[in-house]
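Reviewers asked in the last cycle whether our approach scales beyond single polypeptides. To address this, we selected a multi-component target totalling 534 residues and predicted its structure end to end. The input consisted of the following lines:
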Amino acid sequence: MPLSRSDLEFRAQLWNTATSRIREFFCARGYVEVVTPVVVKSPGMEPNLSPLAVDVHTEGLQAHSTRMGLITSPEYSMKKLLGGGMQKIFTLAPVFRDREAPGNRWSIEFTMLEWYHQGKDYRELMTETGELIDFVLNVDRELSPIYGGVRRGRGVGGGGESEGVWLRISYVDEFEKTFGFVPHDDDRERLIDACKEFNVAHPAVDEPVHEIIDRLFQVIIWPTIVTRGRFMLCEYPVPCASLSKVSADGRYAERFEAFVGELELCNGFTELTDAAEQRRRFILEGEERRLAKKEVFPIDDELLDRLKSVTSPTYGNALGVDRLVMLLAGANDIDSIHLFPPSTRY
Amino acid sequence: MASPNDIKKGTVINLNGDLWVVTTFQRVSPGKGSSFVRTRIKSLGTGKVVENNFKSAETLTFETVNNRKMQFIYSDADSITCMDGQTFDQVMLSKDMVGDDMKFLKEGLDVTVIMHGDKAISIELPLKIQYTITQTEPATKGDTASGNVLKDATVENGMIIRVPIFVKEGDNVLVNTETGDYVERVAR
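The resulting structure, written as structure tokens, was:
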């Protein structure tokens, strides 16, 4: 049954509110909005993601077809613009992720907000991210629907004291407190021992180190921090660095994620700007993809070339706009905020 | 062999010979990192409840269960009673096993009772249930501008939900039972 006009207008209004406030926020801070391509030759190397592959055909004398993919994030294009000298940029991009389990927070296609600022590191990014989310959700103790959503009742933190404050929780500190060490790439044995000691399902022999760390974290640590309302989880173990820079002392990766209750909103980094290290990680990720029998797209050489001109530090953040709209709507289900609900389309 | 992605409320998982019924589940697809299913499972033997995560790539063994279409009739201090409309068979189920779904129940509601052998172990609600709004404040001008797009509303069984400000008393609305979200207003 089609949605009623009131419901359609309500949902459209939610998106209008969110995107116009996002644009207002960044324009007021001197960011420039950019448009990046959706169909690209190197849609992403991230081992856990499956880009939607497409064959693109050119007609005419030089007729040929090119294997391409739909972006899983506008990250590579954004970094090329940084390499070209742009200093503060943001984009609202459609992104696509195939082979995901259906769920009430997930759709194959969704909207990603990404923004980058050269010369700043992720600590400043955390502050800015909190300000952005509060601005979009217009946090008001009595009125904001955010409190009717993920966590019912008045304060997100339960008592109301944590409203307006984003707690910062260090991943490596929590890990060290619980397991007695800060994990690195060569700690496979210690991690497997920790799994045994804490009775966490024993990982497969070839499971990558970052996956074992994630298991321990999700089962043992996560339940103790998820109750803290809204928080930013930062200082990730080095094997979980993804595309972030490792701290000067080598203890952690300069990466964070913002959560409201259980809902993950974004991944922000002090970006890795070392092209040689980036190439090394792409090769490792490509190998992981091959082992998992996933399509391996070519390494984006243009990106690696442009990366050399990006200043260090530079921060970047990728935020799921659908989830922000869910918070705005007080919705727990992604279907509730879309004019074309994802669960009815695939 | 089954995939963790097939887990639902009421699924019975065989873990090393012990049977566990899923009481709540949430699929998690992180922005970075591999997807998994976060569950709370209850032992059919000891009644112990534990949290467990299953990576989407794992394989699991599910036990066979039977689904019976029944109607919810009433609840007392610690249990609820459902009835088969054809045979008038009644089954009882502890409120523990119904969990958070208790708040959605209303007399005469069609539910699926999940049976393991002759024991009722869980119920499954329709994904969307229709309720009538019995009480809600009228919208005031400027609500949307101040970001106040939702308001509280009470429905006929006493449950309080969040609805858009255009919803009025007497309206029929659909509620998603997995999330508790208002879905849409139903034409009268």
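The helical segments of chain B are 95-98. We regard this as preliminary and will revisit it once experimental data from Aim 1 are available.
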